[in-house]
Amino acid sequence: MHPTNHSTMRFRCGIFLLLMYQCALHGQPVHFSQPSGFYLDSLLLQLTTETPYPIRFSLDGSDPTASSPVFTGPIWLHDRSPQPNGIAGVPTNPANTAADYRWRPPQGQVPKSVVVRAALFEGSEQVGDVVAAEYFIGTGLDSIGLPVVSIWADSAGLFGYEQGIYVPGKDYDDNPFIWQPGNYYNEGPEWEREAIFSYYDGKDLALQQPFELKMHGGGSRLLPCKSLRLSAKEGLGAGHFEYPFFPERSHEAHKRLVLRNGGQDFSRTLMADVLMQSLLAPTGLEYQSARQVVVFINGVYWGIHNLTERYDKHYLRHYHDGDLEAIDHFEIAMDYWPNEGSSADFEALIALLPFSDLSDPAQYADVAQQLDLQNFIDHHISKVYGGGDDWSGNNEEIWRPQRPDARWRWLVNDYDDAFVNFEKNSYGHATRTDGVNWPNPEWSTRLFRSLMQNPGFAKQYKQSLRKHLDTTYHPARVQRAIDSLATRYRLEMGRHIRRWGHPASLAQWEANIAQFKVFAAQRAERVWHNFKDYFPDIYLPPSEVSVRPNPVGEVLWVDLPDGLVGKADFRVFNASGQLVQYGVWTNEQANELVVTDWPTGLYVLEIVAEEFAFRQRVVKR
């Protein structure tokens, strides 16, 4: 058995017995001699009851019935991974799905846990509820290096032809030629499933509770591995998932969670969205924390997922102390889709922009008081840097509290198609006016285009862009984040690929990670040049700034434009993106930097003033 101390064993048993409360309420508990968990070797399981009723049990994940075996003595449990794959062999999208996203059968036998379900019977009638425990047996399962999420639900409700929410099923066969057919696209209470959630952290069962399961996402539901939404319900036993899934957060209670499949990045790396949101964590933008986990469904290995927070009123309550029932929150998915409250005021704002001149201070002030401008700028720059295609008429979430002084804020969301093309012309994408359909119809680019008419906003945007490119998206910082995240996924990626066939191989996944790093090395400079090309009147050429000598040995002299009014802020960053020197210069003094103590290498000098922004590489000899 997996080595564990007595206190851990008591903890496991305590958690497990708490989950037997339904059966205990009926007065007919079934006791398991071993708690759920990871075991290196086979084990004998004893089932006991204090009642005269016989115990019937199953080992295939199904609920026991009157024809199931009666427990008469210890059950020998062993690694059942060599057994047939069962639900892992069920195709989860149509055979005509594009090859990059088509379901592929597992390569060999997938890992499996042993799920023991037991219930008491009086003749052919079940007495009380079904009780279950799960055992991960063998050195193969013990090698899993990530937390494990196990979901138990009725298999017919997940994979059945008529009601299975995870398969194309009857809905696809009835409507094969419409946009997005399939059982997994259906919504409503009849497409929600009661299930049991178990979370194993460091091989120990940390949390187990009933919850409500439904499909999550839009177009990504077509992928073979799908995103799942988990909702804690008071009526099922617990109103929140109470556990520190995300150590960087101060709270542990989560009303809803999402197991994300990586979206469009499923066949590349699984980590594009997680990477971008982690880069944005220090910026003050609302972002979704994530943790990489391995999922089992009904005892069958389901691969790597990203366990994340979900944007909703419960999330916003944690981070903004707003009235839980008094917010406006909507999504843009080629139209406005309210989640809470209304999007009417925002829609009215966008509708009036063609008749507004935001270069006029009064009209600009009227629009600005409705928006958190810095939030919009930071969010917009993140989309530009990511270089994806699926915005701004799609994958946008916006919210505000319902109070007179509230301003609209953007929630960073869905960067699954980021980090693909470092040459992407994102300002062309963000200013398009001829689009009438996905992903950036004219109305969706209208706000940015209108705001950029105002010199003050344009200057704020330019300075924020330069700051983010030098800090948030500094090549060395992004590459370090890529390496750090890839290390976590790498723990399990080989087994995940054998399960799903996406990406095509571990070598291909490594190549995709390498491509992310190429993107990180090139993207910031490409964005800056793209910005200059689209807004030449905002980016004043720094031809009047002189930096000498370069390379430099001891003292760097900087001449600023004669027309400079006021002060210019300067900062110097080393090749790793670390700030090494900063200060203020004017035209009334000789501007010099003593660099004697700088280590030999490459530096970046940034100067920002009201009239201009300047950036240049400096080599220290």
3D structure, described in words:
The structure is a single chain. The protein has 621 residues and is α+β, with helices and mostly antiparallel strands. Among the domains are: 342-534; 546-620, Immunoglobulin-like (Sandwich). It is 27% helix and 26% strand. It is built from 16 helices and 28 strands. The strands form 8 sheets. Strands 9-10-11-12-15-17-16 form a 7-stranded mixed β-barrel. A 4-stranded mixed sheet has the order 2-8-7-5. α10 (373-386) crosses α13 (455-470), α13 packs antiparallel against α16 (506-534) and α14 (475-490) runs antiparallel to α16 (506-534). The radius of gyration is 28 Å and the shape is elongated. It starts with 5 loop residues before the first helix and ends with a strand. The model is unreliable at 1-28 (pLDDT under 50).
Task: Give the key terms.
single chain, 621 residues, alpha+beta, Immunoglobulin-like, seven-stranded mixed β-barrel
SSE inventory with pairings:
Layout: H1 6-18, H2 21-25, E1 30-32, E2 37-39, E3 43-45, E4 47-49, E5 55-58, E6 75-77, E7 114-122, E8 125-137, H3 139-142, E9 148-153, H4 155-159, H5 169-174, E10 193-201, E11 204-215, E12 228-231, E13 241-242, E14 253-254, E15 256-260, H6 272-280, E16 290-297, E17 300-309, H7 313-320, E18 327-332, E19 336-340, H8 344-352, H9 361-368, H10 373-386, E20 396-401, E21 409-411, H11 426-430, H12 442-451, H13 455-470, H14 475-490, H15 493-500, H16 506-534, E22 546-548, E23 555-559, E24 568-574, E25 579-585, E26 591-594, E27 601-608, E28 613-620
Parallel strand pairs: 2-8, 9-16
Antiparallel strand pairs: 1-4, 3-6, 5-7, 7-8, 9-10, 10-11, 11-12, 12-15, 13-14, 15-17, 16-17, 18-19, 18-20, 20-21, 22-23, 23-26, 24-25, 24-27, 27-28
